[in-house]
Design a protein that fits this description.
By secondary structure, the protein is an alpha+beta fold. Helices cover about 30% and strands about 20% of the residues. The strands form twelve sheets. Strands 5, 10, 14, 15, 16, 17, 18 and 20 form an eight-stranded mixed β-sheet that branches. Strands 35-39-34-33-42-40-41 form a seven-stranded mixed β-sheet, with helices on one face. Strands 4-3-9-6 form a four-stranded antiparallel β-sheet. Helix 16 packs antiparallel against helix 17 and helix 16 packs antiparallel against helix 18. This is Ubiquitin carboxyl-terminal hydrolase 48.
Length: about 1000
């Protein structure tokens, strides 16, 4: 089928030869593309949007032919969630809880621990009714219920969220697995110690606890002292070792204590050199060996993972490592915990666990459980997530009875007893727990039955829909000469898409302003037979029913007129251009038209016609069947505003009152013939004949404006001549050098003077100043806010001083709300000393509050600049410039270079004669510079060797971090190596605010570094936590 644009052009090709009044039903059907041939199956890859008769590619291919029943539903087989025979139950990963799942599986396979937990008293579970769902509360109750489910549940995996929530773990953040093991065993020990049965109170110690001593021997007197201690796991260093035996040997090796690390001997009563070692006294039934793969890297400041290859045996002899040197202390490997991943902060945890009953090994990977046998029995050999295919092929070599791993981080060994009771391998679930498990199994079976019923219903519904679609699709095509109707193509697609619910048919969005089918929406509808439409509407409902009578002749006529005008536009543009060049004849009536409108009328008309053609509605017409206020037979071209800046045609000569603009230079006269042609395209444009007068209101306002402008100029000239020195800032009085010929100076606000100068400079563009406005210099009590000393210093930026003669002129020309003056007097009782007073007098209460607020703003600044100067040895130069810190409460921004001229305020810079900016560096020697250097020592001018051209500043922003960290970034000095001083005071309080330490805007902080650290970025992370 031809493309959509070709179909659209073909539908309206007849408009060039047919006038709007000559349109027939044949032309209407051509516009609605009734006679366009329907597409055959296989001819179109997708549905033809421009052809209402194309019913191919709307989703019918999935229904025509034989269909697999599984396509009628998206429900997985519930039996896939059922536990297989002779397999274990997995645990759901809640996000990042794989490390919890591995430990739970290891502890579940510790039969003695499981048996003991089953014996714990649980009155809530024993008295629980099966009508409600059981919710454990304590850690012991959670473990009991979880282990019972792992043992006898019919589910393939269970959800441990109850236990995880009780432990307060964040499911989205991976914790330290080794630390979790320690904390959980400690928590479980405390919980079991509260049991009434004495045999249950010490089960954790019996299972996991061993004893060793730290033995220290003085090399001077030979005295030996032992510090006994208990352990639940042995933490073995693996760095530099290849076998487990080497790791244990290093753990027990003797260590020398000398130098600063000497030992205080109680016998010698002094610090002496000594040796220290660990001696093992007893080992637990379950021996947990932590391989310390996650260690802290001092250089990076982060934890890292060691990928050393460690060899470990299936049978471990520990007798030779005990202090008593037992002949037999044999352990069998029962579990290997593995971390897959190259980072210590991410990865995945799995466990290899031996079944105590069958001695078979299983891999526990959250929900997935796999039996390991034959060649798969390579304990600890789990491929790393980040390993390449090439590295995976290099398998380590190991002897029989041994295993090797780069990822194993914990080994669990079980002690071999001389006389093992085989009945101990069977652990029965108590009746009260089995009742809860049966309740959960029943719930699971009900869920399986529900899923099976849902699958069956979906299949039955799909089969019925299949029969319906096959029958109806054959009826959809409308034959020539037979009745037809239109339905939305999107509705047909959703009807054929079984994954969505079929709603009622809605044809209302396709209706035009006349309540019929809009010709521009024909591409979104499909023409189907009346028989098919009857069955669809009876089955699904909806409306309105759109048949042949809904073909809108009015819309077709309007579109025909628009297209004809669009084709005629180029010819009319040339004719209007030629006619506009001719002069009006005397006696001919002319019309006013805006020059901008005349230049742009073609573009405006073209955009307007395109808007009409595309039906992007910017009109006030009603739609969806509501009757319009105009007849359809007349030519209606609605003018739309293309954007806020684009005016309607001829609106550029409209004034704000709706009359003809007074600006004659923006308009011109055109003939009646020109205006008639433009009126066809813009029927609602404002019309002004040659005899139309300009707006009287605008004329009057213009006259008044010119008169006011003349008055303002006269007023500005008079005021400037009267106060010429004030305007030119010449011969101004100052408080520092009080004039000898007067004892009184008057004060006005500097804001008044600035506004007055603006008016004098541009009297036609600015409003005249009428009021002095001195009230802003007074407090609410009417008192003056500034003292003599403050006006000499910082407060001078708020006031301006006037001579008495100038004050007289001010009083004559302006309204004075409050006279303010400062007087000089001599105190005859005090040797004629000069004093100054103001009228009104100073309000001391408000002045103190004003100063307090200034100091508060100084300490609680939101954005300011301080400078840090590094004190250096005169024999070496620092490479970095003194950084400029911008204190701000906003988030950290990227570093950016400031313009060179902004260094002028930096106290490290001074202006030389040649205009170059130089940085001043202290050349104090180490002997003369103390550890806390006063700021004056850093501002001494350096010799030639100490002067260099400064680098541009680096502006840094502080946001929730300390000043120490920002200095570390700038100078590569770690926080604990920084000695900071300001005005001779050491800044040592890390928790204090900058304001409380006296670090104000433009302050200079001196930095003396003990020992620079190159890798300060790593120290940043370490310092922040």
């Amino acid at each position: 089928m031809a493309p959509r644009l070709q179909l659209e052009k073909a539908a309206w090709r007849w408009v060039d030869t047919v006038k709007p009044e000559d349109i027939t039903q044949e032309h209407v059907e051509l516009a609605y593309r009734i006679a366009v041939p329907a597409c055959k199956r296989g001819a179109c890859r997708r549905n033809c949007k421009g052809n209402p008769n194309c019913l191919v590619g709307i989703g019918e291919h999935s229904w025509l032919g034989e269909i697999d029943e599984n396509t009628f539903h998206n429900i997985d087989d519930p039996n896939s969630e059922r536990r297989d025979k002779n397999t274990f139950v997995g645990l759901t990963n809640l996000g990042a809880t794989c490390y919890v799942n591995t430990f739970l599986q290891v502890w579940f396979h510790n039969l003695e621990l499981r048996r003991t937990l089953y014996l714990c008293q649980n009155s809530r579970a024993e008295g629980h009714s099966t009508e409600s769902e059981y919710e454990p509360r304590t850690i012991c109750e959670h473990l009991q219920y979880l282990f019972a489910l792992l043992q006898n549940s019919t589910r393939r995996y269970i959800d441990p969220s109850g236990l995880v929530k009780a432990l307060g773990l964040n499911t989205g953040q991976q914790q330290d697995a080794q630390e979790f093991s320690k904390l959980f065993l400690s928590l479980l020990e405390d919980t079991l110690s509260q049991q009434k049965d004495p045999t249950l109170q010490n089960v954790i110690q019996q299972q996991f606890c061993g004893e060793f001593s730290y033995v220290t021997v003085c090399t001077q007197c030979g005295r030996s002292s032992a510090l006994p201690s208990r352990f639940y796991e042995l933490e073995l260093n693996i760095q530099g070792h290849k076998t487990l035996a080497e790791c244990v040997t290093e753990f027990l090796k003797e260590e020398k204590l000398d130098g600063d690390n000497r030992y205080f001997c109680e016998n010698c009563q002094s610090k002496q050199s000594a040796t220290r070692r660990i001696t093992l006294h007893s080992l637990p039934r379950t021996l947990n060996l932590q391989l310390m793969r996650f260690v802290f890297d001092r250089q990076s400041g982060h934890k890292k993972k060691l990928n050393n290859l460690i060899s470990f045996p299936e049978i471990l002899e520990m007798g030779s490592f005990l202090e008593a040197k037992e002949e037999k202390c044999t352990y069998d490997l029962s579990a290997v915990l593995i971390h897959r991943g190259v980072s210590a902060y991410s990865g995945h945890y799995i466990a290899h666990v031996r079944d105590s009953r069958t001695n078979d090994w299983y891999k526990f990977n959250d929900e997935e459980i796999e039996k390991m046998e034959g060649k798969k029995l390579q304990l600890g050999l789990e491929e790393d997530i980040a390993e390449t295919v090439k590295s995976q092929t290099r398998k380590p070599k190991y002897s029989k009875g041994f295993h090797c791993s780069r990822n194993a981080y914990m080994l669990v060994y079980k002690r071999r007893l001389d006389q093992e009771d085989q009945t101990q391998t069977n652990v029965e679930v108590p009746a009260f727990l089995q009742r809860l498990v049966d309740q959960d199994n029943k719930k699971f079976e009900e869920w399986c039955s529900e899923m099976v019923d849902m699958r069956r219903q979906s299949v039955d519904k799909g089969k019925a829909k299949h029969v319906e679609v096959k029958e109806l699709y054959e009826l959809l095509p409308a034959q020539d000469g037979e009745p037809f109707e239109f339905v939305p193509v999107e509705w047909l697609k959703k009807w054929l898409d079984d994954s969505t619910a079929t709603k009622a048919i809605d044809n209302s969005p396709f209706l035009c302003m006349h309540g019929k089918l809009h010709p521009d929406r024909i591409g979104e509808a499909k023409r189907i037979s009346n028989a098919a439409a009857e069955r669809l509407f009876n089955r699904y409902g909806g409306g309105p029913r759109v048949d042949r009578s809904f073909l809108c002749r009015d819309c077709v006529t309007r579109r025909c007129q628009v297209l004809r005008l669009k084709n005629q536009l180029s010819e009319d543009y040339r004719e209007v251009t030629n006619l506009a060049k001719t002069q009006l004849k005397s006696g001919d009536e002319g019309f006013w038209i805006g020059k901008a409108s005349l230049r742009q009328w073609r573009q405006l008309a073209l955009e307007q016609l395109e808007e009409e053609e595309e039906e992007t509605k910017h009109t006030n017409c009603k739609t969806n069947g509501e009757k319009p206020t105009c007849t359809g037979a007349c030519l209606i071209i609605y003018v739309c505003i293309i954007c806020e800046e684009m005016k309607m045609f001829n609106e550029d000569i409209l004034c704000c009152h709706g009359g003809l603009s007074i600006h004659e230079g923006e308009r011109r006269l055109v003939s009646h013939e020109v205006w008639g042609k433009l009126k066809v395209y813009f029927p609602r444009a404002p019309e002004f004949s040659q005899r139309q007068e300009s707006c009287q209101q605008c004329t009057r306002m213009e006259k008044e404006g010119k008169e006011n402008e003349a008055l303002n100029r006269m007023m500005a000239s008079e005021q400037k001549n009267s106060l010429l020195n004030l305007f030119q800032e010449k011969n101004r009085p100052t408080l520092q050098k009080w004039p000898q010929d007067t004892d009184v100076l008057y004060i006005v606000s500097l804001f008044f003077v600035d506004e007055w100068r603006k008016f004098i400079r541009r009297p036609a563009k600015s409003n005249p100043v009428s009021n002095v406005g001195n009230n802003i210099l007074l407090c609410p009590h009417g008192g003056f806010m500034f003292t003599y000393n403050s006006m000499i210093q910082g407060d001078a930026q708020h006031i301006a001083l006037l001579w008495p003669a100038e004050w007289d002129v001010i009083c004559r020309l302006f309204l004075v709300d409050q006279p303010i003056c400062i007087c000089r007097t001599q105190d005859m009782q005090d040797s004629g000393s000069v004093q100054y007073r103001t009228e009104p007098e100073l309000c001391r209460e408000c002045r103190e509050g004003f100063i307090f607020q200034q100091q508060r703003d100084l300490r609680e600044y939101a954005q300011a600049t301080v400078y840090v100067r590094k004190v250096i040895d005169s024999k070496r130069m620092i490479k970095e410039a003194a950084p400029e810190f911008s204190m701000s409460g906003s988030e950290a921004e990227d570093e950016r270079e400031e313009p060179k001229m902004e260094g002028e305020k930096d106290p490290d810079f001074n202006q030389t004669d040649d205009g170059a900016k130089r940085q001043k560096l202290s050349d104090a020697s180490p002997s003369t510079a103390p550890s806390c250097v006063p700021s004056v020592a850093c501002t001494a001018t350096a010799g030639k060797s100490g002067i260099r051209r400064s680098m541009r500043h680096r502006r840094l922003r502080l946001s929730h971090v300390t000043l120490f960290l920002q200095i570390m970034h700038a100078f590569s000095v770690a926080p604990f190596d920084q000695n900071l001083t300001i005005d001779g005071r050491c800044l040592t309080d890390d928790s204090a605010t900058l304001g409380s330490l006296g670090v104000f805007p433009e302050s200079i902080i001196c930095l003396k570094a003990d020992e620079p650290i190159a890798d300060y970025a790593a120290m940043d992370d370490a310092y922040q936590g």
